[in-house]
């Protein structure tokens, strides 16, 4: 787990420099998972809660910047939630 923690701290620094809020939250969740796996459950709970709030913000951001109707956005959101991790990675890398 130490390698994961080092990688996540480095990635977090890059995301902060670039102002990538969702990337920051992904790193925060990863670090919380590391803390949890080491038995630091209370330390892990706070970042998980913060990330949960930020993910709610991600939905609001998607709604605000979208040219989709509510029905289209809801359908796309539901389809995205059904993706496996590998499928989500492929979708993310396909963005132009």
Overview of the structural elements:
It contains five helices and no strands. It is mainly alpha-helical and 96 residues long. It folds into two domains: 1-52, no CATH class; 66-96. Helix 1 (2-18) packs antiparallel against helix 2. It is elongated and about 45 Å long. The termini are far apart. 7% of the residues are buried. The model has no long low-confidence stretch (mean pLDDT 84).
Give a short summary of the structure.
The protein has helices spanning 2-18, 21-37, 41-65, 70-81, 85-93. It has five helices and no strands.
Strand-helix topology:
Layout: H1 2-18, H2 21-37, H3 41-65, H4 70-81, H5 85-93
The number of distinct structural domains comes to 2
Global Rg: 15 Å
Residue ranges: pLDDT <50 for 5 or more in a row? none
| Secondary-structure content class | mainly alpha
The major beta sheet can be summarized as: none
Beta-strand content:
under 5%
The dominant shape is elongated
User: What share of residues is helical?
Assistant: over 70%
